[in-house]
Amino acid sequence: MYQNIKVTPNKNNVGAIIEANLSNFNKEIIEEIKDALAEYGVVFFRNQQLDSQTYIDFAKAFGNLAEYPMLKGLDGFPEITVVEKKPDEQIMFGEGWHTDSTYTNEPPRFTMLYSIKTPEKGKGNTLFASQYRSYETLDNEMKDKLKNLKAVFSADGPISKTRKNRVDEKGTGIDPKSLSAIHPIIKENERNKKKSLYLSPGHAIKICDLDDQESKNLMQKLIDHQTKDEFIYGFEWEPNCLALWSNYAVLHNPVNDFNIHRVMHRITIQ
Questions:
Q1: What is the DSSP secondary-structure string of 113-179?
Q2: Could you say which of 7, 110, 123, 131 is the most buried, measured as most Cβ atoms within 10 Å of its Cβ?
């Protein structure tokens, strides 16, 4: 199936490791990466050497780049968001299960995260939960219930508190209460038609057309299901690794279990 890259699925088929040189990509390599991404939801590349321009060029092969509404980007490269935890900080940007920027009208389909500075291997992992498997394992009654439901997502949702340190440093000044959007709870991959659950625990505040209590109960039931251990893979970072994921197909959650400087460069793609 893959002629130009080597793809090794992870445990429980949650993501895959790809061997390829991203500094020297071509159309054939990109198409095979897209196929693997559609199949596994998230793919990982180790031992890459990407300067900011090469990183952006690679990202553009997957779509139009989005600028993160809450923070100013890297100097000279506004499409790159610096995701950072400093040694004296207790809270880490983005900790908690979520998928990126669901509170925008056109949320990014894909996110890339490139490691610049990391803790020792095994610390600061990022967990990924397959929402393909989450959807597949729902019973038919629940699938039928969800197929026409939508949810409200807000930038002022539960995860908003984790961005405070970075907003204080380089926020755009946008009020998070001003950013909200409504999206279907079920997504379908345009490449292979696989369905997934699309409910970001960090941003979802209500399911439409349900009363408050029913909405709260259903959201909690779904979130508990979405984040079951059998759907999760933890990626161990080292410097010069890249993760690429579909925001429709996985949730992610960075593990805050370290107290040294960690720096990652993120690009989101519409």
A1: EEEEE--STTSS-EEEEEHHHHHHTS-HHHHHHHTT-EEEEETTSGGGGGGHHHHHHHB----GGG-
A2: 131
